[in-house]
Each structure stands twice: as structure tokens, then as C-alpha cells.
What we know:
Largest sheet: 5 strands, parallel
Order of helices and strands: HHHEHHHEHEEEEHEHHH
Structural class: alpha/beta
Mean pLDDT: 88
Oligomer: single chain
Low-confidence stretches: 7-44
Number of strands: 7
Amino acid sequence: MKPTFRGLASGLGKQLALRHKPRSAAARLGRAEAVSEARGISVTADSTLLTYLQSMCRIRYFEDEVTRLKSDGMVAGSVHLCSGQEAIYVGACTALDLPRDAVFCTYRGHGWAIACGVPLVDLFGELLGRETGVNGGRGGSAYLSSPRHGMYGENSIVGAGAPIAAGAALAATFDRSNRVVLTAFGDGAMNQGSVHEAMNFAAVYTLPVLFLIENNHWSELTPIASMVRSDRLFKRASSYGIPGVRIDGNDVAAVRDTVAEAAAHARKGGGPVVIEAMTQRIVGHYIGDAQQYRTAEEIDRAREAEPIAQLSQLLRESTLSPAEVDIAMRAVHAEVREAAAEAERAPLADPTTVLEHLYA
């Protein structure tokens, strides 16, 4: 008999109806007091949360620096930021067994790469077209990959990462690696045929793959609510006979716990799980997006609910002093600036090597 995902019957099931519902600091700390079992972490709640805050700040400050570099003309091509969604990446990657497990994401993938552990210098180098970039300056912002960190790449075709991830999960059933594969995509990708096919294939073959929907309410420039009859996207999982849950994607502990449970379910042979993480980006779809399709009030609400603001306030109200929290955040800011400066000093990629690593 196959193991079952607890879903609604579990404590995590209480998260399914959340849409940034505010909770007291005490309630949030209570959820986070359970230590992470995924990597053997045994620390107090406050220090664990502070580590999560620093990890989320690392992503935010990286993208702030990328925005500066882009405005200075040093980054070529389009750049899609994930500011406001950082809790999803930090929570999910904390729960996975990287680099054994595999992550596939979209062109909005800086956060996934950083949460997987790809060095900041290598990422800056990639965006700046340096030979020291994680892909030798060939991929830029939208095509990052670092398999040695469990990050198997971005994909600029909407929904195209899902069938690739299903293939990696299928391989895991043959190579006995006990690997779990996570593929992340936006709410708009749920209307792509490739995602439907990947979910159906994974369900039929009981593959160890997690389909994580980063539902930021906007499918590029169009609200998801105007594109579907029901915007409770996790419910589509039932049509494939697999579990589906909705969680607060701005709660890093909720993301960590849900992904950890889903990964354990998949690793034991239970098959795929759909996770819909509710969030909102606090920036445009791409750098330079004027966001004329959004109201100022909506953006203000998103900024109030975003995970770094929420968690930093939570920690300031806990046993940590405001000064301790600020010092930790400033340390990450300095780390990011130093990495950017080091990457800027590196030599540009040699254009004569452009045909290397081509296999077609």
C-alpha cells in the first residue's frame, strides 16, 4: 500500500485557505519552533528564523544590485526579478536534500539559484557576461544552471520545465538515487499543455516530482483571476488523482514544512504533489515594467505582506534586539556588494569560445 500525503488531515492543511492572513508574532514563532529535520538543524527558533531572514535578504539584495547594474548598462538582455517571493525559495530549498535532489525553475530564477547555494560571485559574473560566470557568461539572467548545486536550470518557455522535471524524476526511478525533483512555475503556466502532460505523466508513473506553483496573482501582465474559472489552482491536482495543497508562500516556515512533507511522501514512493504557494511580487514583471496594470494600493499591500518585512518585524518583537536583526541584515548587504565588485573585476567572456559546449 502506497503512503498517503496527509494534506488536509495534517496540521499543514490549515494553511490551505491562507491568502496572507495576518497572524500574531507569537503564533508565527510557535510554528517555527519545530527544528528542521531535513538537514539535521538543531538550533533555537529565533536563530533559525534569523538564518532564513539572511537567506531571503541575500536574494533581495542580489536583485537590488542587479537592478543597479542593469541601469548602468552592464547587464544585457531582459531581467525578471523575484522580489517579494523569497520565502518560497528559502523554505523549499531548506526542505530538499540538495544537491541530490533537483530543482527546475523559470526565467525568474535568481532566488532559486541562490537558495540552492550557487555562489553570488558566479551569479553576478554570469549576468555581467564574465568568463567567471556560473555558465561562462553564456546564459545571462534567464538561462542559469548549476547541476553541482542541484539547480538544473531556468527555462524561458512558459511551463516547459515541468516535462523536463518529470523526465528527471523518471530517471530517478531507474538510477536508484532516491532523488526528488521540484519544478517551479508561475500561475499562468498552469494553462500550458506541457504542464498538464507533465502532471498526468508523473501521476500515471507515480514519479517523485513536486509541482510548485508560485502564484503571485499575475500571469505576466494579466491577473490569473481573469484567465480561469477557478483560481484555486491546487485543486486541479485532484483530476490527476494526486494531492494538492495551497499555502502561504510568504511564510518561510510553512513552505519549508510543506515541501519537506511532500518530498518525504514522494521519496517513499507516494508520487507527485502539487503545491500552490500564494505570494505577490513587489516589482514589475521585468526591469523597466511600469506596472500600469496594477494599482498603487495593491503594490502597497504586497509590500506590507512580503516575507522580509514580515519576518524582520517578527524577529524585532522576539528575543532578538532590533540592533541584532539590523546587524545581520547589513552583513548580508556587505556580502552582496563585495560579490558584485569582485565579479565586475573579472575578465569578460572570450567571444572566440562561443561554439564551445555546443552538441547539436
